[in-house]
Amino acid sequence: MLRQITTVSTKGQFVIPSEMRASLGIAPGTRIAVTQDGSRIVLEPVSEELVDKTRGLFPGKPSLSGALKRERRRRRRQKDRW
């Protein structure tokens, strides 16, 4: 397990260390799921696997998988422009 210390700003923001972002494929614009597990906070990049695990937990809400697919299409279009 990799552990590093970071500081929370007055706005409640903190930096995820670059090594961790790189190893998890977190880039600017990546959506992050935040879960409280007792006294722990778990951060997970929103992936298809996470979408599958949480499918049905939020009935009546907009489709998380649909939002993820739209976001990926948007990113591909942006990449193609470069």
In short:
It contains three helices and two strands. The protein is α+β, with helices and mostly antiparallel strands.
Explain what you see.
This protein has helices at 18-24, 48-54, 64-81; strands spanning 32-37, 40-45. It has 82 residues and is α+β, with helices and mostly antiparallel strands. It has a domain at 25-81. A two-stranded antiparallel ribbon has the order 1-2.
Residue share in helices? 25-40%
Q: Which word captures the global form?
A: globular
* Sequence of strands across the biggest β-sheet: 1-2
Number of strands: 2
List keywords for this structure.
alpha+beta; two-stranded antiparallel sheet
List the helices and strands and how they pair.
Layout: H1 18-24, E1 32-37, E2 40-45, H2 48-54, H3 64-81
Antiparallel strand pairs: 1-2
